[in-house]
Amino acid sequence: MLNRRPLEVMPRERAPRSGEARSCSQFTLCILHFALCILILAFAGCVHPPESAVAPPAAPPSEAEQPPAFPPPQPTPPMPPAPPALPPALPAIIVPPKLDRPPMLRVWLSDVSAAPEISCAGPCRVKVIPGDQEKRHAKLMAANAFLVPGGIRLGDAMYKCSSLEIEAEPGGQVRVAGRGYSGTIRLLRSTDRVTVIVVLDVERYLLNVVGGEMPADWPAEALKAQAVAARTLAIFDHLQRAAFEYDLTSTVEDQVYAAGKVKPSIAEAVADTTGVVLLHEGGLFPAFYHSTCGGETETPGEALGKPEYNFLEGVPCGFCTDSSHYQWRATLSAAELESKLRAAGFTVGAITAVSVEGSDSRAERLVKLVWAGGRTLIPIVDFRRAVGQMVIQSGKFECRAEGGDFRFTGRGFGHGAGMCQYGARGMARAGRLYREILMHYYRNCAIGKLY
Predict the structure, then answer these.
(1) 237 with 91: CB under 8 angstroms?
(2) Positive or negative CA dihedral for 258, 259, 265, 266?
(3) Mind listing the pLDDT tens digit for each residue in 215-262?
(4) 32-33-35-37 Cα dihedral, nearest 10 degrees
(5) What is each CA distance from 441 to 139, 402, 411, 449, in whole angstroms?
(6) CB–CB of 366/357 below 8 Å?
(7) Rounded Cα–Cα distance for residues 154 and 139 (Å)
(8) Is residue 99 a contact partner of residue 274, using CB atoms and an 8 Å limit?
(9) Exposed, middle or buried by CB within 10 Å (0-12, 13-18, 19+), for 62?
(10) How many CB atoms lie within 10 A of CB 216?
(11) Of the candidates 288, 248, 301, the residue with the CA atom closest to the CA atom of residue 445
């Protein structure tokens, strides 16, 4: 008999019995309860989604981009550089140290050429710095000093140095640009020139300053007042500019240092006031002075923009009326005025009006310039320097436009702060002593002796 496989018949669906239905219902409830728990846990963050819900990873980086197994520590980002420290403000008042002799000053001959002519008619020594090599010469023939790589050439002689010092033997003088100077002449290598510094003590310096700032035939008490004011200013600058290459310039920017033979009246005024200075609360200050005040002096705030020195109050003068600068006039064409201002770096249009702005005596007075569509304010000091200090002789002026010109009418000569020199002469002629003169113009100050 052939073996036959029984037919595989798919079972027919049937209705569940009552017990089976109950079991299915319980099973379904369990499934639903389990799903509900899963959802609650998922929302609570306790269950991670299945792997299929995670986005596929990005393609692996190329070999060149593969990160190292142990990446090196990242360097700490650099801190931004600190802003440069502002230079400390120079002190307005300096308490002088105890001195047993006159301090040595360094005076820059700021008006000589970049290659000055140097000579000495008698014995002198030439010292090379650094190295302190020194050589004595019977004399130095007139020769120009030039910069050369790494040194200074004086005539045919070449010196490898940063500085060269020339000093005449006692009684002699070294001549610079045809003028004789006492003290040591120091030649410095600067950026594009040879800078000439005269090194000498303050009393010898005053012999050539008092005569440069005041005529030698003026009354003795006026010359003494000038000597004290100039000494105060010189020693103040010496202490304030200790870190500089020089203490003072040789021009009106500081004090006029005029080479030449010293007149007996000047030598006497300096000797009679040796070491005497002006002090404010025990400290030195720049003892400002000027030619002619025009009736009253001004505070340093309004005259120079230096309100820190306003303890020097403006005072009525009344002693300078015989000065030729007591009143002055000047005329400038509009084109000339604009050209001078532009050459000094000021941006101006076709100027139509010039006036002086008033001041409360603590702020510097300003010059207002007006043109079509614009205006500007310029400090008095800068305006005078730009236009010409011999043209605009002081900051006390009025100006009117007339045709194509500007006509200035003013009083006084100089900045107007501190001592009026013509006023000092007038007071001396009236019999006042130099101490009275100083106390009149330098209010809130005292007279002291440093050495």
Answers:
(1) no
(2) positive
(3) 999 999 999 999 999 999 999 999 999 999 999 999 999 999 988 899
(4) 160
(5) 47, 38, 18, 19
(6) yes
(7) 13
(8) no
(9) exposed
(10) 14
(11) 288
Segment 282-314, tens digit of pLDDT = 999 999 999 999 999 999 999 999 999 999 999
Q: Which residues pair with 124 in a beta bridge?
A: 137, 168
Token readout for 211 is 């005569």
Phi and psi at residue 372, to the nearest 5°: -60, 115
Domain ranges of the chain: 93-103+204-303+419-451, 115-192, 327-411
Give the confidence band of 374 by pLDDT, cuts at 50, 70, 90. Answer: very high
For residue 120, CA distances in Å to 141, 155, 175, 178, 246 come to: 7, 13, 6, 10, 23
Cβ atoms of 392 and 410 within 8 Å: the answer is yes
Tallying the residues shown for the chain, one arrives at 451
Burial class (CB in 10 A: 0-12, 13-18, 19+), 104: middle
Its pTM stands at 0.78
Cis peptide bond N-terminal to 130, omega within 30: yes
Query: CA triplet 386, 390, 395: central angle to 5 degrees?
Result: 70
381-413 burial code (b ≥16 CB/10 A, e <16): bbbbebbeeeebbbbbbebeeeeeebebebbbb
